[in-house]
Amino acid sequence: MLLFDFIMNFPRVGVGVIVKKEGKVLAICRKGAHGAGTWSIPGGHLEFNESVEECAKREVFEETGVKIKNVKFAGVTNDIFEKEDKHYITIFMIADWHFGREEIKELEKCSEIKWDEWRNFPRPLFIPLKNFIYSGFNPE
């Protein structure tokens, strides 16, 4: 077994951020990476020596141009992507919109962005978000 193969057999850590504004949450349609064509929330990989709160703020801004505040832990899921042979532990955070107009900042990763009600979140869902929603979480 090569070192690369050994390293890839461990779960990675993802962070998803539920950004709330005026009774709606920020939704993005994924493209390019795994989960292309599914709807999710802003997020990405936790970097080495980064706090989860820092990651949440960084990823939301990098993907959407939006600044957030009041970042808090919301939950965690164990997500297996069988087709892609990937395994993630996803930490979900919840935050309030602070300022900025949402826009697609990473054109290779996102095809659409919009504010929508949690109970009417667009489908199909990205696996981690699907698992989180089906666990019963409700930010309202």
Concise account of the structure shown:
This protein is α+β, with helices and mostly antiparallel strands and 140 residues long.
Walkthrough of the structure:
It is built from 3 helices and 7 strands; from the N terminus they run αββββαβββα. With 140 residues, it is of the alpha+beta class. It has one domain: Alpha-Beta Complex (Nucleoside Triphosphate Pyrophosphohydrolase), CATH 3.90.79. Strands 1, 2, 3, 4, 5, 6 and 7 form a 7-stranded mixed beta sheet that branches.
Keywords:
single chain; about 140 residues; alpha+beta; Nucleoside Triphosphate Pyrophosphohydrolase; 7-stranded mixed sheet; 7 strands; globular
> Can you give the helix content as a percent range?
10-25%
SSE string, helix = H, strand = E? HEEEEHEEEH
Give average pLDDT, whole number. Answer: 93
In whole angstroms, the N-to-C terminal distance is: 48 Å
What is the C-level CATH assignment? Alpha Beta
Strand content: 35-45%
Number of domains: 1
Instruction: Please give the largest β-sheet.
Output: 7 strands, mixed
- The number of E-state strands comes to 7
Low-confidence stretches: none
CATH superfamily grouping? Nucleoside Triphosphate Pyrophosphohydrolase
Pairing-aware structural class of the strands and helices? alpha+beta
CATH topology: Nucleoside Triphosphate Pyrophosphohydrolase
**Rg measurement, Å:** 15 Å
Query: Which outline best applies?
Result: globular
